[in-house]
Amino acid sequence: MPPHTMEAVQFDKQKEQLSFIKAPQPAAPIRNEVIIKVAYAGICGTDLHIAEGAFPCRDAPVIMGHEFSGVVTAVGPEVSHLKAGDRVAVDPNNGCFNCDSCHKGEYHFCKIGGINNTVGIWSDGGWAQYCKVPCDQVHKLPDSITLEQAALTEPLSCVSHGWDRICPIAVGSKILILGAGIIGNLWASVLHLQGHRRVTVSEPQEARRKLMKNLETGFDIITPTELKARKAQDTEYGFDLIVDCSGYAPAMEESLDLLKHGGKLCIFGITSPEAKMSVRPFQLYMKEVTIYAVNINPFSFPKALGWIDAMGSRYLDYGRLGIKTFTLNQHKEALQALKTGSIAKAIFKIQ
């Protein structure tokens, strides 16, 4: 490889095409910038939507990847809390910190920041050997967390924000998870860690149901057809909390009938911007149900790292979670495996 170039996977919005490329390495950091040699970088459901042209991203070609861990190789002169050699995870989201939303601690609503400025969507991200990011989005890892585990910090930070939104969740609550992809698996792991046992998981793909069983939580793992049949047989069948991890609007809509009085629906899975669901206000009134939506991960990275420390290999083993690693030039195989459901998640292991 010529000097100062690197391997990367880039998305061209105009062509709706992902390509394995040789790109220039990031220029030397200035001011508060940090260069990271990427170790692990995840493929998210949002990335699949972007690659399909169903989710907004930068018009110019962009190196994707907003879930990644690695090792610092260089820092700008204004960076004081990091140094070369530090093991880190990167929070891809930030705010302008000048608007009302940012001043209220809600940078995920910032019109400039949040999902409108995500690393790997609007600027070059972690599907590359090196990535340059602002230092305030870089979190140093404790020795007890591996780079492999740290690649899950971003999705777990989103789960953490969702957890804060829907709590309290009384132990003994009847809980339904819709979807057994990686997000469903992470939600199941967190619920089990927190002492919840009366959990049902609904997943249409047999391969993903088998992967969920690998977590050894003892949760009830069924198909959507079985879920409907149980409701048909028992009109009182229902749940105190439903967490949608499918991003499938019809499933969210149908789940409202499964909520008990005072129940909560957490809309966690990301849909296409055009997706719609219908609700009956009278049903919401009669049951006094609450619908929570979850938007990324405002200031929840430290909580996610705390979870990772507590979860360890019992919950975050790649084999147990159904995660398979690929090289960057295997990106087509990785996306295909995700689409078929033969794996729960793909992560680039970058040499």
Summarize the structure in words.
With 351 residues, this protein is of the alpha/beta class. It is built from 12 helices and 16 strands. Strands 3, 5, 6, 7, 8, 15 and 16 form a 7-stranded mixed beta sheet that branches. Strand 15, helix 12 and strand 16 (345-349) form a beta-alpha-beta unit. Helix 4 crosses helix 10 (301-316) and helix 5 (182-193) crosses helix 10 (301-316). The longest helix has 16 residues, at 301-316. The radius of gyration is 20 Å and the shape is globular. The mean pLDDT is 95.
Output the keywords.
351 residues; single chain; alpha/beta
Short description:
Helices cover 29% and strands 25% of the residues.
Give Rg in angstroms: 20 Å
Which series of helices and strands comes N to C?
Answer: EEEHEEEHEEHHEHEHEHEHEHEHHEHE
Termini separation comes to 13 Å
Look at the helices and sheets and give the structural class.
alpha/beta
Chain-averaged pLDDT: 95
Task: Give me the count of strands.
Answer: 16
The total count of helices amounts to 12
Strand content: 15-25%
The gross shape turns out to be globular
What is this structure's SSE topology?
Layout: E1 5-12, E2 17-24, E3 33-42, H1 45-51, E4 62-63, E5 68-75, E6 87-90, H2 100-103, E7 130-134, E8 138-140, H3 147-150, H4 153-166, E9 175-178, H5 182-193, E10 199-202, H6 206-213, E11 220-222, H7 224-233, E12 239-244, H8 249-255, E13 259-267, H9 281-287, E14 290-293, H10 301-316, H11 318-321, E15 323-326, H12 331-340, E16 345-349
Parallel strand pairs: 9-10, 9-12, 10-11, 12-13, 13-14, 15-16
Antiparallel strand pairs: 1-2, 1-4, 3-5, 3-7, 3-16, 5-6, 6-8
Helix pairs in contact: 4-10, 5-10
